[in-house]
Structure formats: C-alpha cells, structure tokens
Amino acid sequence: MKKHIINCLLMVAFFTLSSFKQEEINLEGNWLFEIDRQDVGVAEKWFNRKLTDHIKLPGSMAQFLKGDEITLKTKWTGSIYDSSFYFIPRLEKYRQPGNIHIPFWLTPAKHYVGAAWYQKEVNIPANWKGKRIILRLERAHIQTRVWVNDKEIGLQNSLVAPHVYDLSPYLSTGKQRITIRIDNRIKEINVGPDSHSITDHTQGNWNGIIGKIALESLSPIYIDDVQIYPDVKNRKALVKITVNNTTSESFDGKLKISAKSFNSPKSDQTKEITSNLTISKQKENTIELDLPFGKGMQIWDEFDPSLYNLEVKLVSKAVIATKKVQFGMREFKIRGSQFLINDIPVVLRGTVHNCEFPLTGYPATTVEAWEKIFKTIKSYGLNHVRFHSWCPPEAAFIAADKTGLYLQPEGPSWPNHGPKIGLGQPVDKFLYDETIRMAKEYGNYASFTMLSAGNEPAGNQVKYLNEFVDFWKAKDNRRVYTGMSVGGSWPVVPNAEYQSRGGVRGLKWDKMPETESDFSAGIAPFKVPFVAHEIGQYCVFPNFDEIKKYTGVYRAKNFEMFRQDLQDHHMGDQAKDFLNASGKLQLLCYKNEIEKILRTPGYAGFQALGLQDFPGQGTALVGVLDAFFQEKGYATAQDYIRFCNETVPLAKIPKFVYTNNETFKAEIALFHSGKIPLQNTIISWIIKNEKGNILSSGSFNPKTFENGNGQLAGNLNFVLSEIKEPSKLNLEVKVNGTAFVNDWNFWVYPEKNLENTSSVYYTTVLDDKAKEVLDKGGKVFLNAAGKVVKGKEVEMHFLPVFWNTSWFKMRPPHVTGMLIQEKSPAFAYFPTSFHSDLQWWDIQNRSQVMNLEDFPADFRPLIQPIDTWFMNRRLALVFEAKVGNGTIVVSSADIDPEVQNKPAAKQLFYSLQKYMDSDQFNPKNKLDFEVIKDVFTSPSREVFKTYTKDSPDELKPNSNQNKVK
C-alpha cells in the first residue's frame, strides 16, 4: 500500500510539474554510412561498430553519389519489353563503357539495390528520462531495421507512411548510437517491379530516408490517434480519439477539443468540448465526441477549400499532451452514377501523378513543393489527381487541402508482371496493412476523397477486390472506394463504389473526325460513377532543351541518345519544329477526347495520362508539360482551360471539312461542374475567318444550367455559299459574362475550282513515260499511294503515337504528327499551319510514308511525317525535286483530281497543281531518277527488329503469364 501511495504521489507530481511539451532532436545532417553489398552486416554486427563512410540525411544514396556505376548489367527494378536497344547496330556506341545511354527511363548518377547502413550518435538529455521516445522516419525506402547500441528494436516495411519506432525501453540519457539498416530489394513482399512506389520507371528504387527524421519525446500517456468524421448536414463532426497509457498506473483526466478555421475569409471557431477519460495501466482507450459547429461553419470544396485545425488536449491538473489536426468539413459521396461534394454533383477532371521527381529521384516532402505542383495542375482546369500505384507523403495532402483538389492515392502496388493478388502471396495482407496506415496518417485530410488498392492486377482479382472494397466501406465512410484502377480488359469488380476503368475512352477517328459522338453506350452498363482510366497517352516529340534541366540525381541520357540519333539521321536542326508540330496535334487530341467525355451525360470524370510527361516505360512523352511540370512551348494553361474547366462550351459538329455548296451546322452544348448553377445564362457564338472578320454570330435564349455534361444550349446553321476562296474558319462559343470560351476550326473549299489547263503529267507509276517527260524538261506529279516499298513498314495514322513505341515494341502508329512547310506557295490554295490539323485527316490517316534514307542530307519534304524518336527515319508524304531536266512532285497520299468524298485531298491536289504551273515552282534539291524509283522498288535498309521474346500483352491479366495457376 505504501508503495502504491508513493507511486500515486509521483504521478501527481509528474503531471503537475510538467506540461509535457513535445520536444524533439532533429536528426538531419551528417550520418555515418556503409554499403553492405554482400549482406553480411547483420551477421557481423555492424550496428556494434562505427561505420566507415559518411552521408547526409534526408536524402538518398544516389543523391550523394553512393552506389555503383551504370552498366549494361545494372539490375534495374522495372520491366523492359523492348530489349532491341541491346542489339541494334546503330546504337552500339551507346552501349560502350563511359557512354552508356539507357533509353527506357532517366539514368541515375549511381545505382544500388541492396542493404546499406546509416548510423548516428545522439545525446539524450537528462530531462527525457521517463518519457516516451520515438524515432520518426517520415519516408524510408524500403525496409528499415533499427538498433539502439547493440539492441535491435524492430523492422518495418511501409511504402506509404512514416516508419515509427518506440525507443523508450532502449534509450538511456547521454550518448546513444542509433543504427538503421535500409534494404531496397524486392523481397518477400513483392508489390510488382513496375509499381510507381518502387520502380526505376518513375521515382527510382532509391535507398535512403527523406522528410522528417527526428527523435521525439512525449508523455508516457499520449494521444495516439485522432480521426475526424464530418457531418456537414447536421453541422457537426464525430471525433474519435485514442489515448494510450504506457505507465504502471491507471489514469484519470479529461479530453478537451475545439476547432478553429485558419484559411478562409471569415473566421469560425467552435466551443470547447470536454469529456472525462479513464485509462487502465498499460492500456489504451478510444472515446468518441461530437463537435458541434455554428452557423458560421466553413465548407471545404475545390472552389472554397476552407480548413480547420482541431486542437485536442489531454489534461490532468495540467495539460500533459496536445495534438493539432488539420481537416475540412466536407462529405464526398456517391448518388447513382454521380460523385457529390457536399451534396453537389461534381465531375472529376484529373491527371495521373506517377511520382515524377527528376531532380531528387524521390517524392517531395514539403508543402511548398506540392503546392507548386497542385497549383499548376489546377491552373489547367483540373480538380483531381490520381497517384498511380503509390501514395504521396503528408505534405501532398496538406497542399491539396489548401489548393482544393480531390485525391485518389493508391495502395503502392501494380501486382502484375510477377506478383498476383488473391492467391495468398504476402502482397495480399500488405495492401490491407498499407491502406490502413494511409487512412490513419492521412484520413483527416479533406482532399483524401477516393481510394484504390493499386493498379491493373493479375490473380484472383474479383474475389480479393470485392472483399477489399467491402472492408473499407464498413470501416471508413469519409471517402469512396474502388478495387483497382484498370484498363478495359480487366474483369469488373461488382462491389466497387465507382469504376476507375479504361475501355470507354479514346477517339474513334478511323472514319472521320467529328464531335457528335459520345461515350453513352460504353458507360450504360455501369450503375456507379465511371471514371475514365488513363485517357490520352498522345505522344509528342522530345524537347531536347529539357536536357539541361537535369541537374540533380538523374540525367536524361535517353533524351541525349534520341537527340544524337536525330542528328545522325540529318535532322538535328528540325528538333524544335518536330516538338512544336507534334505538340499542336497532341493538344488537339486531348481537346477532343476531353470534350467527348464532357458531352457524355452521366460520365463521372477522367484521369488523363497525362498533363505531364512520364519519364519511364520507354520514355512516354504524353504531357503538354514536362516531368518538371513546366511548359514545353506549344501549349499554355490558357489554351488548355478552354476545353478543360469547371465550365466548358461544347459544339457537336458532324465534320470539319466542307465545300461551299453545304451548310455548316452545330449543336451547342455546355458542360458545367460549378459550385452553383449558372442562372439565366446566355451563350453566344461567332464565326470568323483567318483575318478576324466576323462572318456570322448569334446567341441563345437565357437558360439555367445545373451541374451536368452535354446540356443543350441551341443550334446554329451557317450557309457557306458566300465562301468563295479556300478558307479556314473558326467557331467560337462563350458563356456571356464569364471567362468560359471555347472554339473549333473548320475548313471550306470551293465545290468546283477553276479549270486548270495544266502542263503537268499526272501518273500513278514512275514509269518510262514519266522519265521521258522529266528528261525533256517537263513536270511530273506522281501519286504513289499504295506503291511505297521503302517505308512500307512505317504505319501512319492521323492520331499520334500511343504511349510510346518502345513499351509496345513498335506497335503502330509510328508517326506522331507532320511538319508542313506552311509558307511554301505549294499551299497557296490549301490553308494550313505547320502542323497536322483536322483538314489533314482524309489526306494523312492510314497513308503510306516514304523513307528518304538515300536522299541528300539537307533534303526537306513539303510534308514530313514525324517518326517515332526511337527510329528517327527521314520520312515524306509529299516532296518536290528537280530530276533530269524536269521537276517532280511525289505524294504517297492518295491525292488526285478525281478523288471522291475527300474534299481536302482534292483541294490539296489543286493547290499543288497551281503551284507546279506557276513560276514559283523551283525545287531546291536535284535528285537522280533512280533514287526516287528506289523508294518504290527496294525495302528500307534500316528496319526495326525486336529481340524481345516477351509480349506487351503481358500487361493484360488474361495473358499466359498472368493466368491463375
């Protein structure tokens, strides 16, 4: 009894005299370090001796040039589907020691996969005696084991949350040695080598610790967890608080909670709520408190991201522990096939974030860095970010809360290409463990609105993911859940609250470009919100000016190789033109695919791949921004928000090329996903020519537009009979009184051009007659459509390269747009810019291209298809030359005077004929007749050969590799 009384008195004094203000020792800075290549450190007890090297933390081995040189035998973390790089003769120089250029992804300064040891001596102050001391490693990659002096503390594996170790039983006051072994190998827990949480395709499989690294001293009775569940309708929040008592005595005290807004124009503060609390010794207790809000309650959404700080106080005589938690009063729910934010329908306009951090090779851990990324994303009219098979650090959630974005982090797994789910492999339990950690660490952040278990799995998927979704629906109602983010060939997970799914996306422009069709039929079978998975993936040519930005851990050796290869193919001076021409086509494609989604009633949103480039998987240059989230020069945020925004005018147009005996017709519609409806809104339109002259205009009756896709505004007709010259016209539609505006180009040609008594010899065969005409000084137009041999293997569609040709081993298309010599008089009667636009579709789509590998180095065609940067072949669709004593124009597109139902092709032929009949027709280059003829008789000397036995079909879950066995 006496002993008990003494302990009680000590406890009272303990709580009375100390406020238990949290203290910490920052462990950033110099650490001892040693690489354990042979994995002998545990057996040899390296934790019990001084390590021999040095490194700085936070950081990674590669950041401080620790590890191995890059060689052809480097064991990467990530699939390589196209191994041709290792065998192609022309790339041999990039395989030489000292000149290694890896094309699949960015190249780190050093590379290391295995165990490495980090060690620091710390002085523990005397006033920390009796306190709870934890070691916090905000993000470690991947597995950590910790020792204090010679005592092992434990092991952790999380890819999504801090590694936190309780060192209280092991630390004494004075000098103490902390040793951490980090192992970044894929071991028993295999999330998949291409998972963006670990792969060299994106952040890289780094070894190190980033973010906060500290020892924290806490009260032995501490607030372990606080979770806040907003109830917007009833103006309150349910607060669940877990308090842990590690002492040998029971605890009686109070909990006090209150919340105060901190970033909204009007301040709001709740009353303080107090509750008694009793916790038995060595136990924990979770209590639930209702926190009421008044009439001034601030609501969080993308438009007004108002936030609160909840303060929790643990009190006994004095305050012995506090915890501050950021949250927003919001509810993200589903009604039918709609997402709702605070009971208001919302359509998601998203991009996929793949952990692109080319300067560090690991994710940012500061709020400022993430705010910069998120503000850029939002400036492009987006309101949603999906994190592909990874979860960002806490700073990202804080920044997204402030910026107003809806986030879908994922379990850190792409369980494919090796691991599979639902078969009892360690990844099964790991995904539950990881998502539970995510919910505990980040679940209060308003931006954390959605959760997926990962990306595109293999295995017994449906059963596993049904159970996963059911688990989370029952556990936490603060967000909505899907199984995994998948392509269109993956099986449907019936229990998913929403579908993040492919298969209902893309532009079906095999027939003709139009903006009338939508995705209604594709989403009809789904009764839950359907979010388009990884739309776009339209490639652009590399921006070689980007190379100089790589001043950190990574070098753009892939870009360097592509640039040199372009120079080796005599086109180095055209790199910027290729970038801009392909970029304009890329922007056009994103515009049309996004508009197609926005005009589809009931389509819940999209996740574009992407707003920014993806640095791996063969180098997937699919963004209008580079991997630094910076512009490339051909598209701005102002360009993008015309077709991607909270409100977007839309036009349903049956075609984009007309003759002047037709009528241009368009149905005008509106997409709106705003905070409030657009009341009594007038939508107006104008049609103007390239000089800016207004040819017609009008407006529709005032109307109220609720949130929704493709809402009819009105119809317009414009008779084209007054358009006498070949013309590019523009339809612009705007929402009066707002900044919301959108536009579309269309082209009008004379139904009948003036008769042209041409002296040009037209032929479809480069025969003896053609040679005779040329020898006599005549002019020849060769329509070589279908006759090409040299270049026959290159497949051109109107749409550009998808993702990239390396990842899919040269699956077509191979061409990413065209560079057009727009200032040439050859196009005087065919209005064009320097890039592919919709009037080129019936000329360009599925046309053959010519490989000019034997032409002079400075030869430049009038119309130049841009080859995939993995090959950089010099291609032509139309070229001109002097031959013998004459001149020739050669086209591998089917353009002739009698072509039917292809008005653009017919008009281009007319323009070329007029040019050839003029004094301006004076080609720069002289070619031998046999060089041209060889294009139609001899195959290309340089052709793509795949050396890879594996198939990109392995990406599909029903492939042989991924069948459940």
Number of helices: 13
> What Rg do the Cα atoms give?
32 Å
Largest sheet: 6 strands, antiparallel
Number of strands: 50
Q: Decide which structural class fits the backbone.
A: alpha+beta
Catalytic activity: Hydrolysis of terminal non-reducing beta-D-galactose residues in beta-D-galactosides
Keywords: Glycosidase, Hydrolase
Family: Belongs to the glycosyl hydrolase 2 family.
Domain Glycoside hydrolase family 2 immunoglobulin-like beta-sandwich: 221-330
Describe the structure.
- The chain is of the alpha+beta class and 965 residues long.
- The strands form 14 sheets. It has a six-stranded antiparallel β-sheet with strand order 3-2-6-11-8-9, with no helix packed on it.
- Helix 2 links the parallel strand 23 and strand 24.
- Helix 2 packs across helix 3.
- The N and C termini lie far apart (65 Å).
Summarize, please.
Belongs to the glycosyl hydrolase 2 family. The chain is α+β, with helices and mostly antiparallel strands and 965 residues long. The protein contains 13 helices and 50 strands.
Question: What topology emerges from the helices and strands here?
Answer:
Layout: H1 2-17, E1 23-26, E2 29-36, E3 53-57, E4 59-60, E5 107-108, E6 115-124, E7 132-141, E8 143-148, E9 151-156, E10 163-166, E11 174-183, E12 208-218, E13 221-231, E14 236-245, E15 251-261, E16 273-279, E17 284-292, E18 308-316, E19 318-327, E20 332-335, E21 338-341, E22 344-346, E23 348-353, H2 367-379, E24 384-387, H3 394-403, E25 406-408, H4 426-442, E26 450-451, H5 461-475, E27 480-481, E28 499-501, H6 520-523, E29 530-536, E30 554-555, H7 557-568, H8 575-598, E31 605-609, H9 637-640, E32 647-652, E33 657-659, E34 663-672, E35 678-681, E36 683-689, E37 694-699, E38 703-705, E39 708-719, E40 727-735, E41 741-749, E42 760-763, H10 768-775, E43 779-783, E44 815-820, H11 841-844, E45 850-851, E46 863-867, E47 875-876, E48 878-883, E49 886-891, H12 903-916, E50 926-927, H13 929-934
Parallel strand pairs: 23-24, 23-31, 24-25, 26-27, 28-29, 29-31, 33-41, 42-43, 43-49, 48-50
Antiparallel strand pairs: 1-12, 2-3, 2-6, 4-12, 5-30, 6-11, 7-10, 7-12, 8-9, 8-11, 13-14, 14-17, 15-16, 15-18, 18-19, 20-21, 21-22, 32-34, 34-39, 35-38, 36-37, 36-40, 40-41, 44-46, 45-47, 48-49
Helix pairs in contact: 2-3
